[in-house]
Design brief:
With 111 residues, the protein is mainly alpha-helical. The chain has one domain. It has 3 helices and no strands. The chain starts with a helix and ends with a helix. The relative contact order is 0.07.
Length: 111
């Protein structure tokens, strides 16, 4: 399954990148160099991959649901901020128009 020790290290690094630090130590794949019995090593690897898939499915689900939730919250915040910006622009525009009308009225009165 693994060709050498470096591939085991790389695989473990990938797993540790995906799981939390507390889970990382528990999920190191068994070393092929310490086991002389090949069937025992294969059984250990199979059980290891079963644990890996169970935890990865749960963790990936959590990460994906958190990403979706975060994107939804950002979308709602964007809508609220856009509405506020549109209201502010409208208020400023109306104030400028009223100011121009007021200036014209004042100049008409005093001229």
């Amino acid at each position: 399954m693994f060709d050498d020790f470096n591939s085991i290290i790389l695989f473990n690094t990938r797993i540790c990148d995906l799981v939390t630090v507390a889970q990382c130590e528990a999920f190191f794949a068994p070393s092929l160099s310490t086991n002389n019995n090949l069937s025992t090593t294969i059984d250990l690897l199979v059980s290891y991959f079963h644990r890996y898939i169970e935890i990865m499915n749960h963790n990936e689900y959590e990460k994906n649901s958190n990403k979706v939730r975060r994107k939804f919250h950002l979308f709602i915040i964007e809508i609220i901020l856009s509405a506020l910006v549109i209201k502010l622009i409208t208020i400023v525009t109306l104030m400028i128009l009223n100011l121009i009308k007021l200036c014209l009225l004042i100049t008409d009165i005093f001229s």
